[in-house]
Amino acid sequence: MAYQYINFNKGGLNKWFKEKWVDIGAPKKDGKYQPCGRSKTSDRKYPKCVPLAKATAMSGSQKASAVSRKRSAGNTGPKPTNVSTLKRGGMPARNKKNFRPTESGAGMTEAGVQAYRRKNPGSKLQTAVTGKVKPGSKDANRRKSYCARSLGQLKRSSEKTRNDPNSRIRQARRRWKC
To answer: At residue 20, does pLDDT exceed 60?
Structure first.
């Protein structure tokens, strides 16, 4: 196996060590932060340390969320507990741009799928298969799979939902041509 030379002068560990790290869980009254870390005799709560540049770019709610996740994770041993600073993933906002109304088929729009994929890198989410497809094609198999899954959802739903032709599951199945 050939080894590659990694130039740490452009970034990497050297940059990481040279950054100024601060505790976002212990802000000072003037808006600045205490340096990262604490002494063994300190009564400060468990620190949530990030580079100063990241701390200044984060909103107040992002900082509070990161600190609460760090503290709720606790520390079970001598090593620190790592918790991601920014929460990733989730669904896009529930609005007309990202989701269709029930009357129009009750699914995600193309813009909604793109918003979801931005929030969840690596996702393979796609929009509904609504057009005509060749039997045995990828789209035909996606439709067949969705129709089988959604039929199970329909059977488990309430009687009112099962019998209502305008329920979201019914409209989605109609849009997929199930």
So the answer is: yes
3-state secondary structure 58-114: CCHHHHHHHHHHHHHHCCCCCCCCCCCCCCCCCCCCCCCCCECCHHHCCCECHHHHH
Give the pLDDT confidence score for residue 1 in this predicted structure: 44
**What's the chain's average pLDDT?**
82
CB count, 10 Å around CB of 13? 9
Determine the Cα–Cα distance for residues 42 and 57; give it in Å rounded to an integer: 28
Count of alpha carbons within 13 angstroms of residue 16, beta-carbon side = 4
The closest alpha carbon to 68, from 51, 92, 88, 85, belongs to: 85
Query: φ and ψ at 145, to 5 degrees?
Result: -65, -45
- Give how far Cα 122 sits from Cα of 85, 112, 116, 129, 139, Å: 20, 16, 10, 21, 20
- Quote the CA–CA distance of 151 and 178 in Å, as a whole number: 9
**How many Å apart are CA 97 and CA 1, to the nearest integer?**
51
**Is it the case that residue 5 has pLDDT exceeding 60?**
no
The pLDDT of residue 54 is 84
What one-letter code names the amino acid at 55?
A: A
